[in-house]
């Protein structure tokens, strides 16, 4: 009698757990622009009217976070290994003044949407001087960095790095993309004011992460920019959040995400490029009498237009007082 009652219950429980596991393993989402979509925002991050996710605007020493609002199950319960996952997104970085910019964007996998004590500037809104490098962080990130920071062994002012628990990248490279099967490469600047697409793919069986970047109008190459072999399971918890972190330094820079797709145990769905919002113009444009004179529209109402005279004054000040220190920006930024 006992077995007749218990066995069906155990069977039902097993089926329920199996179905739940499968559902979690197949988690995925896609944002072709962020119009009306749920995203958890923090700091300076906000969604502007045309559907752009703006992580930072043109203010100094700011940070912004944007996360998918729900935690994702990243580990296989029986063996504790991290699932295969992939993501792709399109971003744009627009400096207020040419050759004066920083700091960058990072795709982040973290146990919490809150990043306690996170600082802007060289910490990219992810860490601070006390917790950078701590094993207890359980943070995995891919940084798109526009500053050469000797403190964290940055290689130049235009690089991509894979970070585990800190900002000293475990794998990094100058930004470029393969143009043929022989791995001949073309350099790519992160700060062009034009959209760039990124693919991040982790193979949970082989323990390998690949990172690839191209201009938005170039197909994904077969050869990635970075290919890093390491089992991420010891560095990640069962339940994690995915999203973006960004920060600025002493120079004003806007960081945007145009679209984003993520998939657990499979390739992320392709973004529909034609549906993505447009980036603001980089730099001044010719104006008609009816135009407001602000080149970075649309912008949130709380950000007021800056008169041309003030912009020119700030530019002259930057040039006179800071250009000699520009190459040391990672030290004082």
TrEMBL record:
Keyword Glycoprotein: yes
Top-level taxonomic group: Eukaryota
InterPro entries for the chain: ConA-like_dom_sf, Lectin_legB_Mn/Ca_BS, Legume_lectin_dom, Leguminous_Lectin
GO terms, molecular function: ATP binding; carbohydrate binding; protein serine/threonine kinase activity
Keywords for this protein: ATP-binding, Glycoprotein, Kinase, Lectin, Membrane, Nucleotide-binding, Receptor, Serine/threonine-protein kinase, Signal, Transferase, Transmembrane, Transmembrane helix
Residues annotated as signal peptide: 1-23
Domain Legume lectin residues, every copy: 28-277
EC number: 2.7.11.1
UniProt key word Acyltransferase: no
Topology term for the membrane: Single-pass type I membrane protein
PANTHER family for the chain: CONCANAVALIN A-LIKE LECTIN FAMILY PROTEIN (PTHR32401), OS07G0133000 PROTEIN (PTHR32401:SF50)
Family as reported in the entry's similarity comment: In the N-terminal section; belongs to the leguminous lectin family.
Protein name: non-specific serine/threonine protein kinase
Lineage: Eukaryota, Viridiplantae, Streptophyta, Embryophyta, Tracheophyta
């Amino acid at each position: 009698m006992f077995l007749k009652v218990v066995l069906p219950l155990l069977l039902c429980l097993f089926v329920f757990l199996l179905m739940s596991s499968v559902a979690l393993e197949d988690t995925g989402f896609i944002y072709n622009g962020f119009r009306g979509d749920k995203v958890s925002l923090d700091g300076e991050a906000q969604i502007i009217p045309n559907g752009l996710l703006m992580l930072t605007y043109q203010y100094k020493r700011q940070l912004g976070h944007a996360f998918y609002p729900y935690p994702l199950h990243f580990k296989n319960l029986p063996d504790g290994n991290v699932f295969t996952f992939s993501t792709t997104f399109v971003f744009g970085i627009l400096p207020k003044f040419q050759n004066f910019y920083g700091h960058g964007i990072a795709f982040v996998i973290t146990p919490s949407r809150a990043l306690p004590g996170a600082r802007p500037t060289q910490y990219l809104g992810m860490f601070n001087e006390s917790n950078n490098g701590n094993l207890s962080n359980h943070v995995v990130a891919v940084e798109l960095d526009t500053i050469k920071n000797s403190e964290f062994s940055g290689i130049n002012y235009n690089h991509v790095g894979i970070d585990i628990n800190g900002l000293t990248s475990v794998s990094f490279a100058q930004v470029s993309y393969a143009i043929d099967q022989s791995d001949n490469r073309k350099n790519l600047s992160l700060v062009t004011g034009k959209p760039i697409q990124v693919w991040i793919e982790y193979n949970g069986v082989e323990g390998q992460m690949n990172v690839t970047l191209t201009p938005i109008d170039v197909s994904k190459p077969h050869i990635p920019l970075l290919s890093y072999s390491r089992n991420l399971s010891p560095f990640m918890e069962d339940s994690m959040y995915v999203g973006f972190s960004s920060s600025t330094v002493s120079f004003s820079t806007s960081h945007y995400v145009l679209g984003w797709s993520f998939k657990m145990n499979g390739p992320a769905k392709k973004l529909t490029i034609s549906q993505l919002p447009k980036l603001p113009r980089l730099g001044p444009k010719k104006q008609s009498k009816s135009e407001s004179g602000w080149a970075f529209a649309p912008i949130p109402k709380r950000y007021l237009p800056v008169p041309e005279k003030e912009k020119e004054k700030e530019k002259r000040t930057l040039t006179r007082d800071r250009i000699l220190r520009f190459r040391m920006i990672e030290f004082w930024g």
